[in-house]
Amino acid sequence: MKLTVLGCGTSEGVPLLIHPNDGLDLNNSKNWRTRSSIHVEIEDLHIQVDVGPDFRGQCLANKITKMDAVFLTHGHADHILGMDDLRRFCTVLGKPLPVYGNQDTLQRVREVFPYAVAETPAAPGYPCFGLIEMPSQLKLPQCTIQSVVLPHGPCKVLGFVFTESVSGKKIAYYCDCKQVTQDAFRLAKNADVVILDGLRPHSHESHMTLAEAIDVATELNAKQSFITHMSFFIDYKKHSQSMPPHIHLAYDGLVVNL
Fold first, then answer.
1. Architecture of the domain whose range is 2-257
2. Using one digit for the tens of pLDDT, what is the confidence trace for 173-211?
3. Domain map of the chain by residue range?
4. Which end of the chain is less enclosed by CB atoms within 10 A, N or C?
5. Pair 104, 191: CB distance under 8 Å
């Protein structure tokens, strides 16, 4: 089981455009953050979670060459606007690429990429998606994938928990959320890896702060926890110095092998 953090930045990316990004050491590559997404490999199964506008570059940087399914947390622009770049994976797969999400997210995909929602590509080389409403539990030969609703302002976000069939090892991905619900706690408790939204040190109406994410990670008691969807207010070296053991800031290109 392999986890790759393709991006761990907030919706605008880091560093912020046309902004001094005060307090952020831009000489540290771990402070350069593309939009948040992960890639999970379980045996021969390759799963992509979210496909933001930086997706093509993320695939090249991390040598992502296979895609069996896409799981979308929600339909905000920073999580779906790279989906046209799935076209090569669709071509290689030779059939519609399964895309899982909740009803609102799938409707957003239909609206933004109407030419890609079909049984066959609209033209050679075009993307082709098979949209599937995500159940609470999806059993595959390689793993079980569970979903849970997380609050994110007026938007309902899906958190995902991946459990490998052979080993029972578990990864929980809770990105873009103001809090982790009781159901989400139950699913992720004592996981091997937990990845949590932690936007910035000060409060935000629809994201957890860094301190809130650390509190949740501590209670979840995963073997390893990582903070993602971070803004320019979080400097990797500075804020890492005050992190508890086993709780870390993610960075683009982070790989965790289980």
1. 4-Layer Sandwich (3.60)
2. 999 999 999 999 999 999 999 999 999 999 899 999 999
3. 2-257
4. C
5. no
